[in-house]
Design brief:
The chain is mainly β. The protein is built from 3 helices and 20 strands. The strands form 4 sheets. Strands 3-2-5-6-7-20-1-4 form an 8-stranded antiparallel sheet. Strands 8, 9, 12, 15 and 18 form a 5-stranded antiparallel sheet that branches. Strands 14-13-16-17-19 form a 5-stranded antiparallel sheet.
Amino acid sequence: MNTIKSFVLLGIISLFISSCKPDEELPTTANLQIDISGLEDLGEDYAYEGWLIVDGSAVSAGVFNVDAAGNLTKNSFELDASDVDNATAYVLTIEPSPDNDPGPSAVHLVGGEFNGKSASVTTSHGSAIGTDFTTSTGNYILATPTDGGSNTDELSGVWWLNPSDGPGPGLDLPSLPNGWVYEGWAVIDGVPVSTGTFTDQGRTDDNALFSGTAGGPPFPGEDFLNNAPTGLNFPTDLSGATVVISVEPSPDNSAAPFILKPLVGSVPSNAVDHTLYGMDNNAIATNPTGTVSR
């Protein structure tokens, strides 16, 4: 009888001890997978950085670069499990490299809300640029108003204005948040040449490097009359060239247009000066998009 009692007692003690074991420790890290297409190589001075929005604050979710083919140098990140589980959104920014600021820059490229285990990220998210540019429109004329009225080489300048509207703006573009500017371009003999950056389509841009000495109209544009870049000759003839409106990070370390090119226009081969020409909306083809999974 005593032996039976002893076995029963031992069983009760064992059950009590096992029931008092601490719970198994939860994992402290979790994997975040990013799959974003349409990004470009930022060069040595800048890098992409992801951010998780946790309780309203931005928590770094990893830094990566993109090669010339658009491939991400890293697309999987081991992060704090609590941050990953509690994140409500993901934002991708462009940061200086190296970067001494622990917080995100003002250059927010794409973002998206988490819906369960994933977030679809786009430029139109409120924490990113805030628009997809698909409603943007553009018109331009060829003219050289800064040549002092000589009326020569009129096909050597491009201006985003509508001459029949007072003149009025030739562009209809959404306002940009801090960290972004618009930039005009003319692709001349395969070389993209900037006409200047701007944020207001009803005012002059910040560049008159190639223009003449006379004042130009109060709209974005440029006369290609002086100071031609190496390999080009000014004045030129823009017939058959391509004109572009891009969206650029600010600051910007590249002499070429950024990936976001919402408006592109092919100048007719038989172009006539002071004639209004339209541009095509190219936003869907150039907007980066993707998915972030946790």
